Amino acid sequence: MEKRRADIIAEQLEERIFDGTFADGDRLDEARLAEQFGVSRTPLREALQRLARSGLVELIQRRGAFVRQPGPVELLEMFEVMAELEAVCGRLAAKRISDTALVHLDEANQKCQAAVEARDPDAYYSENERFHKIIYKESGNSFLETETVLLHRRLQPFRRQQLRLRGRMVQSMSEHTSILEALERGDAEAAASALRGHVAIQGEKFHSLMSTLKSAAE
Amino acid sequence: MEKRRADIIAEQLEERIFDGTFADGDRLDEARLAEQFGVSRTPLREALQRLARSGLVELIQRRGAFVRQPGPVELLEMFEVMAELEAVCGRLAAKRISDTALVHLDEANQKCQAAVEARDPDAYYSENERFHKIIYKESGNSFLETETVLLHRRLQPFRRQQLRLRGRMVQSMSEHTSILEALERGDAEAAASALRGHVAIQGEKFHSLMSTLKSAAE
DNA sequence: GTCAATATTTTTGTATACAAGAATGATGGT
DNA sequence: ACCATCATTCTTGTATACAAAAATATTGAC
C-alpha cells in the first residue's frame, strides 16, 4: 500500500508548521518547497489543498498558500466547541454505552491514576486520550465520533503542554472519575456537564498560559 | 474576482451528485469528465479532492473517485449531530445574543408566519434559514458558526423536501416561537432543548420519509 | 472448457511545459 | 523628488506528456 507523495508531504508540512519552522503568515512557495522535497509542484499543490482543509493553511486565489495559525481568540472558540462536542458525546454515551466499554473506560482511568502517581505526563496523555476516545465511540454516532476526533487532533499541539502545569494532572483525574461515575449511573446530563467542564477548563488554562507568555515577553 | 475552474467544476459535480445524475458508488472517470467540462485533468482532479473533503466523494488510491452518498444510518447520525450543534448555538446565544439580533430574529419569524399563511414552502425555507443562521452567529463563536453552517449545507438537500409534509410548516413555526421566547428570556437550557427538538424532528421525519419510500418501492 | 500466467490496455499519479495574473522594478513626466 | 504608467519578472493555474500501477484481454496448458 504505497502512500501518495502528496500525503507524505502534507504530513511533513504539518509537522513543520506545528514545530514552528513555518510561522503564522508565512507564504509557502510551491517551487521552493517542491525542490526541497524533491518532487514536482503537482503533488505539492495537492498537499497544500489538504492542509487548507484542516485549516492550517489559507489558499488565496492567484496569490498562494499562507500559514494560518489560529490566534488566541479562535483557539478559545475551538476549545469551547470541543467542550460542547465532548459533552454531546457524553450525553449520548450515557444512554448507549456498553458494559464492556465501561470496563475499558475504568481500565484507562486506572492507568491514568498510575501515571499521575508516577508523575509521567506522557503516559497520562496517551491514556487520557484512550479514555476520551472510548467515550466518543460509545456515543453510538460514528459521524459525531469522527468529527470529534478531528477537532481533538487539531487542538492536540495546544493541549499537550498543559499537563505540565502544577496540579493539572491530579485535577484532571478527579474530573475523569466523576465522568466515569455519571456514565455508570447512565446520568446523561451529569456526564455532559462533567465532560464540558473537563474540556472547558483546558481552554481556560490555555488562555492563562497565553497571557503569562504574553506578559513575560514584554 | 475570477473564480478558479476547479471551484466551478466542484460545484457542478456537487449538483450532479445531488440531482442524481451520478448515483452512489459510481466511479467518476477523470478523462471523461475533463473532456465533458472542456478542461484538462488537472483542475478536475482538484475538484474531486474538494468533493472528497466535503464527504461526497471517496478517493481510493490508484483506483479513482467514487460517489459516496450517505446511507440512511449516516444521515440519521448527521441529523443528530446537527440537532446537537444547533442546541449548543442556542445555549450560547441565550447568554450572548444582542438586542438588535433579537429584533432580526423576530422579523425573520414573522416572515416565516407569513409564508405559512401563504402556503409558500420556498419562502418559508429561505426565511427559516435566515432565522437559524442568526442564532449560529449570535452564539458568539465564529468557529462554531462556520462548522454549523457547513453541516447545515451538507444536509440541505435532504431537509428541503420535508416542508412539503402535511402540517410540518405549522409545527415548525410553533417551535420557532418557543425558541425565540427562550432566547428572549435568556434561558440557555430551554433554548438548547427547543432547538435540539426542532432539528431532531427533521431527522425523524426524514427517517419515516425514507421508510415509506422503501416500502413503496417493494 | 477452465484456470493460470502473461501481454495489452486503461487509468491514476507525477513531471514538465505553457498561459495568465500579480508583484516588482524601470522609465518618463511633472 | 514624487507619482503614474508601462515593461519585466515571478508565481500561480492549466494543459500536456510520461511513468507506474491496476484492470482487462489474450494465450496456452491441462
Question: Can you tell me about this structure?
Answer:
2 copies of one chain form a homodimer. With 218 residues, chain A is mostly helical. Chain A has 2 domains: 5-67, Arc Repressor Mutant, subunit A (Orthogonal Bundle); 72-217, Up-down Bundle (Four Helix Bundle (Hemerythrin (Met), subunit A)), CATH 1.20.120.530. The first copy, chain A, has helices spanning 5-18, 30-37, 41-53, 72-96, 99-117, 121-138, 142-159, 168-185, 188-217; strands at residues 27-28, 57-60, 64-67. Chain A has a 3-stranded antiparallel sheet with strand order 1-3-2. In chain A, helix 5 (99-117) runs antiparallel to helix 8 (168-185) and helix 8 (168-185) packs antiparallel against helix 9 (188-217). The interface between A and B is medium-sized, with 24 and 24 residues. The structure holds a DNA duplex (30 and 30 nucleotides).
Walk me through the topology.
The structure is a homodimer of 218-residue chains.
Chain A: H1 5-18, E1 27-28, H2 30-37, H3 41-53, E2 57-60, E3 64-67, H4 72-96, H5 99-117, H6 121-138, H7 142-159, H8 168-185, H9 188-217
Antiparallel strand pairs in A: 1-3, 2-3
The structure holds a DNA duplex (30 and 30 nucleotides).
Protein name (chains A, B): FCD domain-containing protein
Keywords (chains A, B): DNA-binding, Transcription, Transcription regulation
Organism (chains A, B): Tritonibacter litoralis
